[in-house]
């Protein structure tokens, strides 16, 4: 088994003391920041990217992986204890989890979510390790036209297929694509949409966009509706430990959640919402204790949490093997790779196997660290939740602005941050999804260069996109995924299961 | 929502117009580019795609606004927004004129905290300044990143 040999060599990279330390810092930072209400893993990585670019690439990427997994754990803690999930993927967890916390069973809710995340994360990371070599073999056969078609699929599924409104999703995507045009075009050396501003010649930084949209936008949004929305923190009362009954009711949902989460995350469809809500609906149907649903059923926490983590690991499959980010967090991870001049994809597996397999192996380690650290430290995480909201958001904004100017010491960069913040605020207010903007900015220029490469090989004949069977199939899938939500209203109504 | 209650959403129409304007800017910018190589579709192709896409989406958003399809919104509280944006503006101005980041950071911290309902501006100004010093030491000494310095930073 090729994968196991590679994984073993990856493990030897991951257990180097420095890398273990990076993984530990990653999971601690990830959980700590993920716990803070309103901050998801995407923003955590975005905030830390600019300040780590002078560190060792392998160590930093291992740290980002730790942050990624840690952010998930932190997010579910917040979902259970305050019922304000920082990201949509934790919404299903919040439904029953918060009810459990209100009923004084917050401890077991946190425990089943932590252990379920560990189980799902471990299985899904194995899935990633087993699947990656096959996908890499497939991906080396891809020509530029096939890559372009694949990116079209990702664009459509991320923005249109599964959202609430395909028009609003596509609008977000095209705003991102337009932002991706800004700067000097590498192939022709001409500047686009730069209006003579020198800072705009080197493209828009993905981190500036993400921090603006997520941190500044969120702060403006929360501040503007403080008068309508109060948060209430549930105290963790009673035992943290799960009873025998809890275990019996949890283990099947964990496995079923993993089974939903990993494949859906691994498809270039993006988003952990679908598997989490599918898992929630399934557990509600299969439970032997239907009377508990609506009052805090442990199955309703165990399943969605497992699905959430499995899909997070699944998202790494297209990211690492194809260089294709399908969520905002994956887009930030890609930005992290690019910051060190690394491009995820089949070439990276061939050129830097140590780094890629070291990263995959350290995912196992991060997962185990989270299980060991999280339950004992839950008291600390809960105390983080008690930071007064004014200081929390003031601190976030200070850190966001400092990180931005540390990376690009220019007032223009801060003006962009503010403009993106206002954009993020408006998008939240009018219910436009944010992830497609980030994916559009980072993937748009890549898609453009693949398209132009394909067309220059074919001497400008656009039929090349349809002559390759892979590309033709992928474009057909993209077209179906684009048309389907308009024809069948309600693909995005998975959220309806909560009623 | 029943169909009788639906009315034209003015904000939605403004969004549609803004998208149309963005499409126009992308298109106008595209016309100034030159095709240099006959073997490349050149730098114009992508802006054309984006501009057409934005135009179509502007129409889509416009139709949605005319039908009143936008999600319901709560009343907006403008004061905190102005406070936060004002704090950011102070920081940007101070950095632009070479005043360093610390004073600006302290103002941003206190302004944001006030926007979230705290009534202790001077205390928060002090806390913000302490955080700024801490971040400066962390960034400049530990991570070897440079932050725009002013008279205060040079003392550290």
From TrEMBL, chain A:
Statement: the UniProt record of this protein carries the keyword Transit peptide: no
Bilayer-crossing regions: 20-49, 61-82, 109-135, 147-163, 169-187, 316-335, 355-378, 390-408, 414-443, 464-488
Keywords (A to Z) from UniProt: Membrane, Transmembrane, Transmembrane helix
Superkingdom, natural source: Bacteria
Domain DUF112 residues, every copy: 20-438
Keyword Membrane: yes
Pfam families linked to this entry: TctA
The protein, known as: Tripartite tricarboxylate transporter permease
Species of the source: Microvirga makkahensis
TrEMBL record, chain B:
Keywords: Membrane, Transmembrane, Transmembrane helix
Domain of life: Bacteria
Family matches, as InterPro entries: DUF1468 (IPR009936)
Transmembrane found in the keyword field: yes
TM segment ranges: 7-28, 48-70, 82-109, 121-139
Pfam families: TctB
Protein's name in the database: Tripartite tricarboxylate transporter TctB family protein
């Amino acid at each position: 088994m090729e994968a196991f040999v590679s994984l073993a060599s990856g493990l030897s990279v991951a257990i180097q003391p420095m890398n273990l330390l990076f993984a530990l810092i990653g999971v601690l930072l990830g959980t700590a920041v993920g716990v803070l209400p309103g901050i998801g893993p995407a923003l955590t990585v975005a905030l830390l990217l600019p300040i780590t670019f002078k560190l060792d690439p392998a160590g930093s990427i291992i740290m980002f992986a730790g942050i990624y997994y840690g952010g998930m754990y932190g997010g579910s803690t917040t979902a259970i204890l305050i019922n304000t999930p920082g990201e949509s993927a934790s919404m299903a967890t919040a439904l029953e989890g918060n009810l459990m916390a209100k009923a004084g069973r917050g401890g077991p809710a946190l425990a089943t979510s932590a252990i379920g995340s560990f189980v799902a994360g471990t299985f899904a990371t194995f899935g990633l390790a087993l699947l990656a070599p096959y996908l890499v073999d497939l991906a080396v056969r891809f020509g530029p036209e096939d890559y372009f078609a694949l990116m079209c699929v990702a664009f459509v599924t991320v923005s249109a297929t599964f959202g609430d409104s395909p028009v609003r999703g596509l609008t977000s995507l095209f705003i991102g694509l337009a932002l991706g045009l800004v700067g000097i075009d590498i192939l022709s050396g001409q500047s686009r949409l730069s209006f003579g501003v020198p800072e705009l010649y080197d493209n828009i930084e993905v981190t500036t966009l993400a921090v603006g949209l997520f941190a500044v936008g969120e702060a403006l949004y929360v501040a503007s509706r403080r008068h309508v929305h109060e948060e209430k923190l549930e105290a963790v009362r009673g035992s943290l430990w799960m009873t025998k009954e809890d275990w019996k009711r949890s283990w099947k949902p964990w496995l079923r959640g993993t089974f939903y989460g990993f494949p859906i995350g691994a498809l270039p469809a993006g988003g952990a919402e679908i598997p989490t809500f599918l898992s929630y609906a399934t557990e509600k149907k299969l439970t032997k204790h239907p009377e508990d649903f609506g009052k805090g059923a442990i199955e309703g926490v165990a399943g969605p949490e497992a699905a959430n983590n499995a899909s997070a690991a699944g998202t790494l499959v297209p990211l690492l093997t194809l260089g294709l980010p399908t969520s905002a967090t994956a887009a930030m991870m890609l930005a992290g790779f690019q910051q060190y001049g690394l491009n995820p994809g089949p070439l990276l597996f061939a050129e830097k196997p140590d780094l890629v397999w070291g990263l995959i192996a350290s995912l196992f380690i991060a997962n185990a660290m989270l299980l060991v650290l999280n339950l004992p430290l839950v008291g600390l995480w809960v105390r983080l939740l008690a930071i007064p909201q004014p200081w929390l958001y003031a601190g976030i904004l200070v850190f966001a602005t400092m990180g931005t100017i540390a990376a690009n010491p220019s007032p223009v960069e801060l003006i962009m941050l503010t403009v993106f913040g206002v954009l993020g605020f408006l998008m939240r207010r009018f219910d436009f999804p944010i992830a497609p903007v980030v994916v559009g900015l980072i993937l748009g220029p890549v898609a453009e260069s693949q398209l132009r490469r394909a067309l220059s090989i074919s001497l400008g004949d656009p039929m090349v996109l349809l002559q390759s069977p892979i590309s033709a199939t992928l474009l057909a899938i993209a077209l179906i995924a684009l048309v389907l939500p308009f024809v069948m209203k309600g693909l995005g109504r998975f959220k309806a299961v909560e009623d | 929502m029943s169909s009788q209650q639906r009315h034209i959403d003015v904000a939605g129409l403004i969004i549609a117009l803004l998208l149309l304007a963005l499409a126009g800017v992308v298109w106008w910018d595209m016309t100034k580019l030159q095709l240099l190589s006959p073997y490349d579709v050149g730098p114009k192709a992508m802006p054309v795609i984006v501009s057409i896409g934005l135009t179509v989406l502007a129409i889509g958003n416009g139709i949605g606004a005319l039908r009143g399809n936008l999600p319901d919104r709560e009343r907006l509280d403008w004061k905190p927004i102005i406070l936060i944006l004002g704090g950011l503006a102070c920081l940007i101005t101070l950095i632009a004129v070479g005043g360093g980041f610390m004073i600006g950071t302290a103002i941003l911290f206190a302004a944001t905290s006030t926007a979230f309902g705290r009534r202790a501006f001077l205390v928060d100004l002090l806390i913000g300044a302490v955080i700024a010093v801490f971040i400066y030491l962390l960034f400049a000494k530990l991570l070897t990143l440079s932050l725009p310095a002013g008279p205060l930073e040079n003392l550290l």
